[in-house]
Amino acid sequence: MEHASFGPEGAHIRWTGTAGGGDGGPPRVYVHGLGATSAVHHAHIAAVPALAGRRSLFVDLPGHGISDRPAGFGYTLEDHADALASALEAAGARGAELIGHSMGGSVAIVLAVRRPELVSRLVLTEANLDPDPPLSAGSSRIATYTEDAFVRGGGFEETLERIGPVWRATMRLADPTALHRSACALVRGTRPTMRKMLLGLEIPRTFLVGGHGEELTGREELTAAGVTVRTVPGAGHNVMFDNAPGFAAAVAGQP
């Protein structure tokens, strides 16, 4: 396990990783979604033979997994991106390929815009691109609570009960304050929006959609801007669990 300082004094963002076999390509940095952890969602993908030759980092964003959860941190998408930048710099992982799931994809987009020297490619899985997602989204449900009601009034516990065993397994490891502030940041979005930032980037970009999910809004616009949009069959929001071979092939850039 490695770490780098971020935000308030004494706070550290942490990650685990593999050295890889030295295939000559840039490191791959896996970034989890809201209430998740990176190794749980991605370590089995990085072990696939087509990917195992590359150095891999599994970074837990502030307030999640093994990273610190300072009470005075804002947990905005920009805050998360800056903390992730600290991790990449400390790890010597400039020019990395970022594989971001859901909120992690949004953070990856923000990082690619703010610190372009750190990112050479984006693979975004069911990433949040627009503010004000529907109430069916996990972030929107969490954001309906006030911070006090979520952290101290039972909202966190109600959410853990509602979301089911898969998401609950990692969300229960997240700090409730960090979780609520991160969810509100997703609902609020960025200015310009994550979608507009993604459209304006010139690095290779792949956007993955689970075949069992809703139709991707603005798919034609993304394609016209050079974003490779792929539907992974047999998968819902957690593409890496539902169709691991299809997900790994997309990360590896295979047809």
UniProtKB/TrEMBL annotation:
Coiled coil: none annotated. It holds the Pfam family Abhydrolase_1. GO terms for molecular function: catalytic activity. Residues 29-136 form the AB hydrolase-1 domain. Gene3D superfamilies: alpha/beta hydrolase (3.40.50.1820). Residues 1-20 are annotated as: Disordered. SUPFAM superfamilies: alpha/beta-Hydrolases. This is AB hydrolase-1 domain-containing protein. It comes from Streptomyces rapamycinicus (strain ATCC 29253 / DSM 41530 / NRRL 5491 / AYB-994) (Streptomyces hygroscopicus (strain ATCC 29253)).
